Amino acid sequence: MIKNITSVKGIKCWGAHSGVKSMRRDLAIIFSEVPAAAAATLTQNRVQAEPIKITKKNLKNNRAQVIVCNAGNANACTGEQGRLGAEAMAQTVAEALSISPEDVIVASTGLIGEKFPTEEVVEGIKTIVPKLSGEPKAGSFLANAILTTDTFAKEGFVEFEWEGKSICIGGVAKGSGMIHPNMATMLSFVASDINIDERLLDKALKYCVERSFNMITVDGDTSTNDMVAILANGMAGNDKVLDEEDPLYHKFRTKLLELLIHLAKLIVSDGEGASKFVEYKVSKAKSEVIARKLVRAISDSVLVKTAMFGRDPNWGRIIAACGNAGIAFSYKKANLYLGDSENLVLVLQKGTPTEFDKNYMKKLLRESHIRVYLELNTGKEEAVGWGSDLTTDYVMFNSVYTT
Fold this sequence. Notes:
It holds the Pfam family ArgJ. By secondary structure, this protein is an alpha+beta fold. Helix content is 33%, strand content 28%.
């Protein structure tokens, strides 16, 4: 049997067409049968969409029961009209499910600055609520209903046994452009049946987002609507996780990270116009923070992205990006490797360029999966990130995005 977010105990959902987008599902709801611990990481863009503001307010108590999301309109830069529209989303779904509007997480994705289609979305919510289901197809409908420029739906599911209890975590995500999360347009919604303290859920989510969604980039733009939200309803029946030292907390965090990395990689692989999936790894660093900063500096570099697109083994661009990371960096201690998913070639050894076959390297860089590995030789910590190349197709697509 197919397992997805609906395999999480007590979770029902649905996705349907409300009329905002032409001939495509554009409205989704995730509902927990019981109130749940909740947490979210939200965009750090200073221009924030109206649903972000409502979600931030509603999650002050780290409790929620519903996530509602529309696609096709970001409800950003929409002023009072947009604010009322986002509030109407929360109010309508709350009334339909007989819960408090304060227990609703609201999200939107789509064009910025367009008048929010409140009437269509509200009517869509009223239509969807009676259809909420725990069937696997409902999870697939949900995953498809949050897409914008994506070319495929992004789903994931993990489960594990703990003291005779089966604990499930399921999630969906969307994003292919404007991907540069800082917690693109990037959304991810996750549900689990683990029984866990709200504070610890929030801590686990932040830890995992830092090492998954915050380690991907497509184009360097952080959206006005970025959100990763999680519900944990406790229906697995495990003894409640109350302490960070509890072994179950660490097991849950490990499995949550596994799921989020899976979803993050799917987003990168669907990057607008992308022809390559690039894995960046920085190892033997003094700290994980340093390693993460260097990964982000390299993967964010437009010159590095274009070199990957052009199959150009121009390692100088990678080293230059490290020098712009805002941290101490010595290329004279570093080893740098380039290659595909199976073969790596040493191009820089402790600051000294190596002799390598450029034609062979170009052959490796022609593959759809590329690796860039940097060893700092200053410590034992490491970090991994993922990105895409920057292609002419990306430029063409985004030059006519609204037309």
